[in-house]
Each structure stands twice: as C-alpha cells, then as structure tokens.
Write a structure and sequence with these properties.
The complex is a heterodimer of chains A (115) and B (114).
Chain A (H helix, E strand, L loop, with lengths): L4 E3 L2 E4 L5 E6 L6 E8 L3 E9 L2 E5 L6 E5 L5 E5 L8 E8 L10 E2 L3 E5 L1
Parallel strand pairs in A: 2-11
Antiparallel strand pairs in A: 1-3, 3-8, 4-5, 4-9, 5-6, 7-8, 9-10, 9-11
Chain B lengths: L2 E4 L4 E4 L4 E3 L1 E4 L5 E7 L5 E7 L5 E4 L2 E4 L9 E3 L8 E8 L9 E2 L3 E6 L1
Parallel strand pairs in B: 2-12
Antiparallel strand pairs in B: 1-4, 3-9, 5-6, 5-10, 7-8, 8-9, 10-11, 10-12
Classes of the chains: A mainly beta (115), B mainly beta (114).
Chain lengths: 115, 114
C-alpha cells in the first residue's frame, strides 16, 4: 500500500458527460501528479500540483482540469467525454518538489470507461 | 523532446530463466532513470533507479546500469520467479528546475510460468 488513495476505482459513463476523479496523497506529501494510461498512448503525464498551485503541465486536454485543495487532496475533472478518454488514471504524490531523491508514490488508479 | 523506448512484450519465461528487458532513451539533458513495476490491479511501484552515468540500480534481484554512451538502461534478473509476473516500465526524469514529470516507456508485460 503506497498510502495514496484514489476514488472511485471504476467509473463507467457516456460520451459528453463530466466526471471527477479524486486523489488523496500520502500524509505530508505536498506534490500531486496525474497520469493517464491508455493502450495507444501508454503512460502520459497530465499535470502536477504543489501545495495548491499548478506546477507543470503535460499532455492534458483543454477539456480536462485539475485542482489541489487546502487539505492537499486533488481532483481531476474530465468533461465532454469522448470514447478515447477511456483509460486508467493514476495519481502520484511526493514529499517536496520531486526530484531524483523524492520518489513518486502511485495510487491504484481509476479506470474510466466511456461508452 | 524526451522519450523512452522499451522492448514490446509480452515476454514469457519459465521460472529460473534469465530476464532482459531493453530500454533506451532520448533526452535533452542528463536525466535520472527508473524502472517501475505494476502488478495486476495495482499502481506503479519504484523498482530501482540510477541517477548518473555508470550507476547501477538494484533491488529484489533486478539490476540495471545507466549507460550514457548507448543511452540505455536495460533491466536484468538472473532467475525470475512466478511472482515477478507484472508490467515493467522504464522511465526518466530530471532533478532541479520544474521538470519533475516522469516520462515512461510503453511497458513490457512479463509472464513467468512455473
């Protein structure tokens, strides 16, 4: 158990809908990262937050947004969902601004299926 | 941009066989390199890492050496077990600055049969 929790574990929804994925980092970790894992694109970095502020952006679509709250949990919002958004979404956390010595701890993921 | 290429699986081995999973990278700077493992139904776990050229990372019998001249970080294990069955990801990142994201390879599924 990494200490990172993600809810829900599974989510099935229809095209055009909006969903929210939730992540609680390890106790004391300030950085949260979101990754998308799909069959065709593999594992891709979406976005990073550090202590409530956006720190880095990757291949995140404009239909997607995220935030980190004062209690450090984070939410990833996906809107106007398309079939291609079906994927496993991982959250990871690390203690400080992650560098080499600050390992990223991954949650179990949320599997999103868009029908 | 940065990228990681690893051998595509699936790889199927018998217990006690020797394992090699190839990984090469393209990077603009001097990255640190990682191997992550994903067991069925779980998130990713860091398996080993190397922060500079010629470093060898090792853990649980797995090893990988950071080869700058060949831009490679191949994963090896001398004798695999059934419990090693998982998906293995090679990844890179940088220290310092704001490039903290992990760039992953596509993953290699390893199945070890008894």
């Amino acid at each position: 158990d990494s200490g990172v929790t993600q809810t829900p574990k599974h989510l099935i929804t229809a095209t055009g809908q909006r969903v929210t994925l939730r992540c609680s980092p390890r106790s004391g970790d300030l950085s949260v990262y979101w990754y998308q894992q799909s069959l065709d694109q593999g594992l891709q970095f979406l976005i990073q937050y550090y202590n409530g502020e956006e720190r880095a952006k990757g291949n995140i679509l404009e239909r997607f947004s995220a935030q980190q709250f004062p209690d450090l949990h984070s939410e990833l919002n996906l809107s106007s969902l398309e079939l291609g958004d079906s994927a496993l979404y991982f959250c990871a956390s690390s203690g400080l601004l992650a560098g080499v010595d600050n390992e990223q701890f991954f949650g179990p993921g949320t599997r999103l299926t868009v029908l | 941009g940065d990228s990681v290429t690893q051998m595509e699986g699936p790889v199927t081995l018998s217990e006690e066989a020797f394992l090699t999973i190839n990984c090469t990278y393209t990077a603009t700077g001097y990255p640190s390199l990682f191997w992550y493992v994903q067991y069925p139904g779980e998130g990713l776990q860091l398996l080993l890492k190397a922060t500079k050229a010629d470093d060898k990372g090792s853990n649980k019998g797995f090893e990988a050496t950071y080869r700058k001249e060949t831009t490679s970080f191949h994963l090896e294990k001398g004798s695999v077990q059934v419990s090693d069955s998982a998906v293995y990801f090679c990844a890179l990142t940088y220290s310092g600055g704001s490039n903290y994201k992990l760039t992953f390879g596509k993953g290699t599924l390893l199945t070890v049969n008894p």
